[in-house]
From TrEMBL:
The keyword Nucleotide-binding applies. Residues 254-438 form the FtsK domain. This is FtsK domain-containing protein. Keywords: ATP-binding, Membrane, Nucleotide-binding, Transmembrane, Transmembrane helix. The chain crosses the membrane at residues 67-98. ATP binds at residues 274-281. The lineage of its organism: Bacteria, Bacillati, Actinomycetota, Actinomycetes, Kitasatosporales.
Length: 514
């Protein structure tokens, strides 16, 4: 007969060992038995902590209102049958849900991510280390966790990195910044756009990989106020609002870059610069379509390619010119019209009357590639077209005249001083160098260049504001057979909605039917 061994707590081990085992068994049993109570207690503690945080941060008037509504609700519930019981069950259930054991996700980066961060840290050592520093933040074989405050990876690629740099780093020099940004751009992975945010006060640099801007937004009637023009669409963090747009048959919100014109605008005129095929003409066409909803339009095609002939004969379009004689006559009329409006507005104000109605309707002047016409006028000994634009540029803000000029990047220096001085809304499109973007916008680009730049993609800057990414809505010539049929139909649809004769015809049919 085999003798069974005694339990551990009844064996011949010392008394203190048996007591320790007994205490451990009792604690485990008590934990299992009291686990629901522990969970509910933990949940009640979390609820109380949340309530304390809310109470300390909420305004006084909101706290009083919430306290009164809660007291009234509890009083009503107390009068209901089984009301207190239901409240207690709900409170215990929510406490049990908040106090449950949550699975902790593994902390820290993976091995591949640690290798990537280590490479970036080692590459920054020559740029962020100075001789004589007794405790350098960046040193070979150093700990990258002391320098990198935060990081984020998505699908194995770095999408965000926040790092510290020593106080002696010359972050106020553009050359020093450019060297660090170029290095991080190469190490984080080319082919994407990166934005660098320098916090000079706290000595922090944040790198963010930006997603590509949507290119599927076509021309349409945007929801804007009079005097507002949508130049394109940008990142959500760079815009103060969103507008509904229709994309592939669905409506969604998109953050726009809005250019404001009118008597109170600080950027009454616009200059768009880009290379051939970059989308400058597309931007001017989009501006022209939006201008027809609230004003009159003059279009000058300096390239002579017929990009604006689809506007001829449309309501609100006063002229579409491409020849030198017609352009000079149109711009001369625009100068006289600006002076007439200015005199009429001034006389009305002196008499204490509102401005005449014909001066309150905006007049838009779209000029595409004027430098070619300037060379032709100089060869023929005629008036420079840019000289005729000086009056609308100087006095257009008070007279309700807005000028939008488009030119290739190579001809930026040939533009007159009046255009460069008064066109404070700037757009640079296409694959331009950092120096060309700075010359066009007056500030460096806000991101690194992308590997693939679609038409209409670039940067915009309104006055002295920040530089923003922008994607111009697809606005092709509706008579261009090579353009997408959906985009051509979208342009024709906008032209139909801006035709007042269509509205009057529909109204006459309704009146006849009634």
């Amino acid at each position: 007969m085999v003798r069974r061994p005694l339990p551990g707590i009844l064996s011949n081990r010392p008394a203190w060992d048996r007591g320790r085992d007994l205490a451990r068994f009792a604690a485990e049993g008590a934990t299992d038995v009291l686990h629901p109570v522990i969970t509910i207690t933990r949940g009640l503690r979390r609820q109380a902590a949340w309530l304390h945080r809310w109470w300390s941060t909420a305004p006084r008037d909101r706290r009083n209102t919430t306290l009164f509504v809660s007291a009234a609700t509890l009083f009503v519930v107390a009068l209901l049958p089984y009301g207190p019981v239901l409240v207690g069950i709900s409170l215990m259930g929510s406490a049990a849900w908040l106090g449950r054991d949550r699975l902790q996700s593994p902390e820290g980066p993976s091995e591949a991510e640690r290798v990537r961060l280590r490479c970036i840290y080692e590459a920054l050592v020559p740029y962020l280390t100075a001789e004589g520093d007794p405790r350098p933040l960046y040193r070979h074989e150093g700990d990258w966790r002391h320098a990198f405050v935060g990081y984020e990876f998505a699908q194995g690629r770095l999408v965000s990195l926040r790092l510290r740099y020593p106080a002696y780093f010359t972050d106020g020099e553009p050359e020093a910044r450019a060297r660090v940004e170029q290095l991080l751009h190469a190490k984080a992975g080319r082919g994407r756009e990166y934005r660098f945010d320098w916090n000079e006060e706290e000595n922090h640099l944040t790198l963010t990989a930006l997603p590509p801007l949507p290119t599927a937004i076509a021309a349409q009637r945007f929801v804007t106020a009079p005097g507002e023009t949508v130049l394109g669409f940008t990142d959500a963090a760079s815009a103060r609002r969103t507008i509904p747009v229709r994309v592939d048959g669905t409506v969604r919100d998109a953050p726009p870059v809005v250019w404001r014109t009118g008597p109170r605008s600080t950027e009454p005129h616009l200059l768009a610069v880009g290379r051939a095929g970059s989308g400058v003409t597309t931007l001017l066409r989009s501006i022209a379509l939006q201008a027809l909803h609230h004003g009159d339009l003059l279009a000058v095609d300096g390239g002579g390619t017929g990009e604006y002939l689809f506007l001829s004969g449309r309501p609100g379009v006063l002229a579409v010119e491409s020849g030198l004689a017609g352009v000079l006559a149109t711009l001369e009329w625009a100068a006289h019209e600006t002076e007439r409006r200015l005199i009429a507005v001034s006389r009305a104000r002196q008499a204490g009357r509102p401005a005449p109605p014909d001066t309150r309707r905006p007049l838009w002047i779209i000029v595409d590639r004027p430098t070619g016409l300037c060379q032709l006028a100089e060869a023929e000994g005629r008036t420079d077209p840019l000289r005729l634009l000086e009056v609308p540029l100087r006095h257009g803000r008070a007279a309700g005249v807005a000028v939008a000029v488009g030119e290739q990047a190579e001809g930026l220096d040939a533009l007159g001083s009046a255009v460069l001085r008064h066109a404070n809304a700037r757009v640079a499109l296409g694959a331009l160098t950092a120096a060309q973007v700075r010359a066009a916008l007056g500030a460096p680009p806000c991101t690194t260049p992308a590997a693939h730049i679609p038409a209409g993609r670039g940067y915009a800057r309104l006055g002295d504001g920040p530089v923003q990414r922008v994607q111009v809505p697809a606005t092709p010539d509706p008579y261009d057979e090579d353009a997408a049929d959906a985009h051509r139909q979208a342009v024709l649809g906008v032209l139909r909605t801006s035709d007042p004769r269509t509205v009057s015809l529909s109204k006459s049919r309704e009146n006849g039917g009634s």
